[in-house]
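Appendix B.2, paired examples.
Example (i):
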Amino acid sequence: MSKANQSHEIKVPVLPESVSDAVVISWYKQVGDFIERDAPIVDIETDKVVLEVPSPVSGVLKEIIEPDGSTVIGQQLLGVINESDESSADTAKQFQQSNDSESSLVDGQADEQVDNSPVISPAAKKMMMENNVNSSQVVGTGKGGRVLKEDVLKLIESGLKEIITSKPETSKSDSEISSSSPLPANDYREQRRVPMTRLRARIAQRLLDAQQNAAILTTFNEVNMQPVMDLRKRYKDLFEKTHDIKLGFMSFFVKATVEALKQFPAVNASIDGNDIVYHNYFDIGVAVSSPRGLVVPILKNAEFLSMAGIEQEIKTLAIKARDNQLSLDEITGGSFSITNGGVFGSLLSTPILNPPQSAILGMHKIQERPVVENSEIVIRPIMNLALSYDHRIIDGREAVQFLVTIKNFIEDPSRLLLEV
């Protein structure tokens, strides 16, 4: 049997136990199209990440079994591809080029311009048509600049899309305008109903579960950021030159958090039925914003990471989150989480637990405030800290002391080096 006659199945990847199913969001190719081996052929969305399913071989897509919008489970058959040898591949490419050439003929003249328009997923294209969005308005965040459904949704929600209305404009006299509705003639009220993405729906469910199934309390404190800011200012250039990464504040808080968790193991624990599960590792989730919503990638074994290692890992995960490239392993697990609402200007908040974790640290905006030091009023850069915790396994005393420990490490960062 020649390669051209061999069929290969395209299947949903193996999903972890915590993910029950997924949704097919866009096929990169249509039936009859040629695709190279390992090139992405279909995207599926779980309640955590978007997964690109690669083509198992080079060949022609024979059949799409599960179209866009289908709900699928691990190892379910998505489609079939016929493997092609090099000659068959060349033939397919030539056929495609011939079609492209014929389709470029307009009024008997070939369009010699190169098509630089972005690649748009079918789901995104459908949403653009429904909402009168032009492709030039959308910035694609997918692989190779591919426009995803989430990119269009983000544009629509931000209010940047141009509203195109078929209402004819009519001229009115000054007296008619003054006596008519205060709204201009071409303005109108509208409502849009957009289904939640899988990630947004999962976030909503998890937050609701956290509030209903845990005894959540929040304790607050404030920290003087001057010592860390002075240390950062003194060494930031040398740090970046040595490690090829900028020194931020998050690495200090991750380090301080790990040391505090070592002193208060219950804060790093979780509840499983009637059991308390204590972890001897420190997997710190760092909440980051992505086009699909808030995701919490995990710094695995953060206790073994240097300051530079923490900064590099956070940067890598943030870029992957932005480009929808996070793997399931990178957002699964975690024994404690940190969220920084300060980057958006938040001064104070009560973060919600990320189940099954039992605590989460909230960082906030640094703001200069008058404080008393040595009986004198001075101006210092102050950050509010918030620790939300599950009172079922963490006592108030432990929660307060845990937060004070982080405060002490940040206000005297040399203690992080000495681990005292």
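Example (ii):
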Amino acid sequence: MAQIKPLSALMYACKGNDVSKLIAPPYDVLDETSKDRLLQSDSHNIVAIDLPHLPSKTVGPDTAYDGAGRRFQQWLADGVIQPTSAPALFAYRQSFEARGHAFQRMGLIANVAIQPLAASDAGPAPRGAIHPHEQTFSAPKADRLKLMHATGIQLSPVFGMFRDECGMVGQRLVAAAAAGPPLLQGRTVHDGVLHELWPFADAEAIVAAFGDRDLYIADGHHRYTTAVTYMNQCGAQPGRDPAGCCMFVLVPMEDPGMIVLPTHRVLGGMAGFTAQRFREEANGLLALTPFLDGDLVSLEKALPGAGPHALGIYYGSASSPRMAIATTVGPDPLAETHPHRSEAWRQLDVAVVQHLLVERICEPTFTPGGKVTWAFPHDLETVAAMTDGAEDRLGVVMQATPLDAVQQVSDHGELMPPKSTFFYPKLATGMVLNPLA
């Protein structure tokens, strides 16, 4: 079962409690410009350790990781970062805006005893399993492993979620935040999100309330699988040794701040693409309804309730945009081609795009013998910019993947297609660090 426990945290020692200049977004969303901007704000920003090599998610030279390790040890010696007085659990609140509305999201920062991820070939997972929903790749894991060995620290938490139907955990999180001013607070500049942290006065109560709930990884699959490898290489015991634990931020799925935003698609490399040919080849698989009333924002808003697996189709140019709503002809359009998959997986819009729109329509028609190219913009402006005037490209406006679908697919031990979920906002790196020795 999933075992949560307090962690012997390391934190920034700063005047007051404002760590805005010291925290950062996760390493994998940063580039050279954004890293430099953070370091110009404060040379002790956590990005100096967490992203020693660019581009992110690639493996750098050993000297880069060794330098990060030496820098971190110097920060410890100088008192820039200090250990807390005793192991603790923490309530973590993010306050943010999404799509014109204000939200707050409460999570529990805790160590979780490492266990193998639930897998489809292992039969039904026992209670308290840890479920993935994304595929991982070798280069990001190798990069994070080198950094963990060089620093002996888990720098970024894994974003996890769980069911809290009765609100037992959520109520304790809210109570912890209401008990007094935050221990630390900071605002990430790139998205304006406010991050706040409170310690729990009674860690045993929250551990008992948590029980044997299943955990689902929302974000941080590479970090978790790297932690498993690190534990094995160190010969650590799961849940007993520091390296046998992995720091999570655990958020109830029922929290109103559990926001999943869509990740859109731009398909390219389709020489000879024409709307007429696309419509002809889609006949019998997709129903295409021209959308003449408004822009991409209006198109996105029209998708819910428009029909099964409603997708927005965009092509043309800014001066002459062409838009349509595509819906599947049948309610289970992947049943024939993917009968071995669960119904929950087959009902994913992202699976329909990949295996019906792309593999059965676009690739056979416009890239015979080859593959379309993919881009995954989060915002509609980028969809338009990447598609406008490009005769070989097609923009696909997506609906967000529901949280229930993430759980159902994970419970079947299946992985989703790439870029299926965009949990917003990202967690901050640098609020709490987890020593592994």
